[in-house]
Write a structure and sequence with these properties.
The chain is an all-alpha fold. Helix content is 74%, strand content 0%. The protein has 14 helices and no strands. The longest helix has 33 residues. It is globular.
């Protein structure tokens, strides 16, 4: 039997190497000076990491850290609001019977299949009609509604919140809001954490929407900010090392968030409701 495990193990190792190699390159490249970046072996470490960090912090009076704060605002607030909307919507679709429920769910499934690039221009025109372009709202508002998040929350609610548990709470006199807050949310917590993490990462890495919506440098997220630096690198090559260093720093919050939230992914989805 062990002989048959070799092939999947090799496939997993190759897949892991494929995913980790760009990260290894970013880590090593961020330690190099501009001369070392183009003249030394690709994966060989350099000697200029702290110089790069200092230069990045001083670039345009520290605007990189403004980009990081903007990105944290977009991703944090957007993911929280999206998780709340997804949780309520998914629970409603899973536990309530009302006319048009299946039609609403089918529309959401269709929304999952629509690429974000198709919606970017209509969203821009819609927000421009309300004079919201080049504001924080222009990036936050489109991030609140996530068809995939609602779909995922509905699946978790259907699996993790038994109808008998809801009926028992109603028998005890609990209203719909209290049932959702005290019964459904603890049971759906692993699913809601998953929705939050997926949405946070999607907003943090989003480039097209803020690139279209924003024109002010001080409102850029880190993705658009680094892109503007990269374009300037065509005439100022020294910025290449700053772009790589900035990319490395932008990965750190995502890694920390994943390591912090992964403890909420439990096998027993009902444990929260039982303990509550």
């Amino acid at each position: 039997m062990k002989r048959f495990a070799v092939v999947p193990t090799v496939v997993l190792v190759v897949g892991a190497a494929y995913c980790l190699l760009p990260i290894v390159w970013v880590v090593t490249a961020s330690t190099k000076s501009n001369g070392e970046l183009f003249r030394t072996f690709t994966l060989a470490p350099g000697t200029a990491l702290f110089d790069n960090l200092a230069d990045l912090s001083q670039y345009q009076s520290g605007i990189y850290w403004q980009w990081i704060l903007n990105t944290a605002l977009y991703a944090g607030v957007g993911a929280l609001l999206s998780t709340a909307v997804s949780g309520v919507s998914g629970y409603t679709l899973a536990k309530y019977r009302f006319p048009g429920r299946n039609a609403v769910f089918n529309v959401l499934l269709a929304g999952v299949l629509v690429p974000a690039v198709v919606l970017a221009i209509p969203q821009y025109l819609l927000l421009a009609s309300f004079h919201l372009t080049d504001t924080y709202w222009s990036v936050l508002l489109p991030s609140v509604l996530s068809p995939y998040g609602i779909y995922l929350a509905r699946i978790y609610a259907a699996a993790a919140v038994p109808d008998s548990l809801v009926e028992a709470a109603r028998t005890d006199g609990a209203g719909d809001v209290r049932i959702f807050a005290s019964v459904a949310v603890p049971s759906m917590l692993p699913g809601l954490v998953t929705v939050f993490l997926f949405q946070f990462v999607a907003i943090w890495n989003n480039f097209l929407l803020p690139y279209i919506m924003l024109t002010s440098d001080d409102k850029f997220p880190v993705t658009v900010g680094l892109y503007t630096m990269l374009k300037q690198g065509n005439t100022t090559p020294v910025l290449y090392t700053l772009v790589v260093t900035g990319a490395l720093l932008s990965i750190a919050p995502l890694v920390a968030l994943f390591l912090t939230l992964q403890r909420y992914w439990r096998v027993d989805l009902l444990s929260g409701a039982v303990k509550g």
